[in-house]
Amino acid sequence: MAKSASGVSERLKARKIRRHNRSLGGDIFLTVFLMIFSLFSLFPIIYIVANAFKPLNEVFLFPPTLYVRNPTLNNFRDLKTIFEGFDIPLSRYLFNTVIIIVFGTLFTVIFGSMAAYPLAKYRFPGSRFLSNLIVYSLMFSSTVVAIPNYLIMSGLHLVNTLWAVILPTVGSTLGLYLMKNFMVQIPDDMIEAAKIDGAKEIVVFWKIIMPLCKPAWITLIILSFQTLWGTTGGVFLYSENLKPLSYVLSQVVSSGISRTGVSAAIALILLLIPAIVFEISQSNVMETMATSGLKS
């Protein structure tokens, strides 16, 4: 009885603490504070959207405005005209981008998860060293590893193929780090129970680990998509038939001041697609984060 009474009193104290932390005044202050900063963060987005529908005389106004006086679609019509003048159809650039994004994202999630599973759930000689090495590798930017990546792709004779763009992204340690840290939270008892029931390692991975890691791999899909959507192929792609859509759009933007309106339309396109993907995936992440409730 004494233990139950002490347990009830502890729960009441915790409830009082939670109630104190959720005071009405604190909630109002936090809401107003976040709204003010969210308005500041919306300014660049509003500016990009407004510029895409401005005529040239409004684009060059100083100081710039966040609204459109005479909205027009001429910037998008001019962009269409530019694409029609290319020797390579727009559909080819779009097809290359889809291939890069689909295979790059798919392989990043699969290989990152499969490599993270033994590091998170097993102890073997060198496992701690590998985990530390993964963390250290996150300090190196893509610019630092550009030359090693090119040498590796050249040695594999993959330069001027789409694989030269996909494989360096798959080999990034960010996905491995993210998946490993999430898998560590999964109780080992669930894995042991599944093995006692006769489940093999591959079944445990696909039927237990991956469903429970849904928030992690959806986040990884978002990050991988954003990276691959903005890639231009760099020094890996020489053939015009292999160029992604971002490369063509960047070439139009760099054509000069005469295409400022077209550049504004391109900026909106480059922003809109990742924003839609992020919004759709973000809702799934928040939902799974709220319902998973994993504890280490």
Question: Main attributes?
Answer:
single chain, 296 residues, mainly alpha, 14 helices
Could you explain how this protein is built, in words?
The structure is a single chain. The chain is an all-alpha fold and 296 residues long. It has helices at residues 2-21, 24-52, 56-59, 74-84, 90-121, 127-137, 146-155, 163-170, 173-183, 188-196, 201-212, 214-229, 245-253, 260-292. Helix 6 (127-137) packs across helix 9 (173-183). It starts with a helix and ends with a helix. The model is unreliable at 1-9, 12-20 and 290-296 (pLDDT under 50).
Relative helix content? over 70%
SSE-based structural type: mainly alpha
In N-to-C order, the SSE pattern is HHHHHHHHHHHHHH
Shape: globular
What's the pLDDT, averaged over the residues?
Answer: 78
Over all CA atoms, what is the radius of gyration? 25 Å
Beta-strand percent range? under 5%
Set out the fold topology.
Elements: H1 2-21, H2 24-52, H3 56-59, H4 74-84, H5 90-121, H6 127-137, H7 146-155, H8 163-170, H9 173-183, H10 188-196, H11 201-212, H12 214-229, H13 245-253, H14 260-292
